[in-house]
Amino acid sequence: MKLTKQTQSDILKHANEAAPNESCGFVVLTGRKQSYHPCENVATLPQDTFEIPADAWIGIDGDIVAVVHSHPRNEPFLSGADRKAQNQSELPWALATGGAVKLFRYAPLLRGRQFVYGAADCFTLIRDAFMLCGIEFRDHPRSNIDDDAAAGSFEQNLPDGGFIRVRAGLQAGDVVLTAQNGIANHAALYLGGGEMLHHAFDHLSRVEPYSKYWQRMTHSVWRHQDWQPEMLEAIKNDISVI
Predict the structure, then answer these.
(1) Which one from 71, 186, 199, 224 is the annotated catalytic residue?
(2) Among 18, 42, 163, 211, who pairs with 23 as Cys (CB 3.0-4.6 Å)?
(3) How far apart are CA 21 and CA 23, in angstroms?
(4) Strands 195-198 and 63-70
(5) Which domain holds residue 85?
(6) pTM assigned to the model
(7) How many domains does the chain have?
(8) Is-contact 37 25, C-beta < 8 A?
(9) Is 133 noted as a catalytic residue in this protein?
(10) 127/40 same-domain check
(11) Phi, psi of 7 (to 5 degrees)
């Protein structure tokens, strides 16, 4: 989904009018027409959070296709509370911040996912984590987990997504490929501090130490060309959700 220029303009206008409180509302699709539907923020502390009245969800003329709110202090990413609420809504969220509107497609919380190859696997997890940071890259089709690994799927698709292989200097935000018998068959996101986020076959997605075992299994390290250190905040906000 893309937001029209008029929708973005209306969202920013409402955000400016509501400041220093957070604004909130919906993106609505009526037939083929997209529009912004502003709502009242009824939160107890509207400068710090937002709450849309329950009855605002009822009687909308059209389909609600995104939830909207603003960050008057210009925090560029969804907070942990935002991610928890987005996970409940299962909708894209638009964030007005820093004079622009950022759209975050819906993705389940990064931790606790059931493994389903091609739908919820290690590459999906990394793609969704980078989306929360504002970096989008396309998914790729899967066939069989072993055949894809043997065909070098990771080495082919990471460059397509904007990643460059680095030879030294592992840093937070890097993607670590691990291998069995010399074949890269798993990917993890290094979080810094000796921890990584990953989704292994037949396990829930989780954070765990980048231990000596995983270090021995490491095949290569990849870094996105648009990565900035402050983006890690977006991922940490998500994994802080209980």
Answers:
(1) 186
(2) 18
(3) 6
(4) unpaired
(5) 5-104
(6) 0.95
(7) 2
(8) yes
(9) no
(10) no
(11) -60, -45
Q: Which listed residue (24, 39, 122, 133) is catalytic?
A: 122
pLDDT per position as a tens digit, 118-141: 999 999 999 999 999 999 999 999
Please confirm, yes or no, whether 224 is among the known catalytic residues: no
Residue 109 lies in a domain: no
Identify the CATH number of the domain in which residue 131 sits: 3.90.1720
Q: Is 198 a catalytic residue?
A: yes
pLDDT at residue number 59 = 82
Per-residue pLDDT tens over the stretch 74-94: 999 999 999 999 999 999 999
Reduce the DSSP state of residue 89 to 3 states and report it.
Answer: helix
- CA–CA separation, 155 vs 30, rounded Å? 43
Residues 100, 12 share a domain: yes
Does the pLDDT at position 69 exceed 90?
yes
Selected catalytic residue, list 14, 69, 71, 198: 198
